[in-house]
Write a structure and sequence with these properties.
This protein is an all-beta fold and 64 residues long. The chain has one domain. 0% of the residues lie in helices and 39% in strands. It has no helices and five strands. The chain has a five-stranded antiparallel beta sheet, with no helix packed on it. Strand 3 and strand 4 form a beta hairpin. It starts with 7 loop residues before the first strand and ends in a 6-residue tail after the last strand.
């Protein structure tokens, strides 16, 4: 997984009816874009996370 500051981290819901969680990557703490990432969720909450297989990075240049 590779990200840069400003990309979005999307954590997909794990069970039926659970919504995806979308966060903006505000800091890349690993080497060369690797996790962990400091992220800010839509409600303003910030966390440090190492995304799992149920997550994806949406790079800013390809967002619609």
């Amino acid at each position: 997984m590779h990200a840069t500051k400003g990309d979005q981290l999307v954590q997909h819901g794990r069970v039926v009816g659970e919504h995806d969680k979308v966060a903006e990557i505000v800091e890349v703490m690993g080497k060369e874009g690797a996790p962990p990432y400091r992220v800010r969720f839509e409600d303003g909450h910030e966390a440090v996370c190492s995304p799992g297989p149920d997550s994806e990075i949406r790079h800013r240049e390809i967002r619609l």
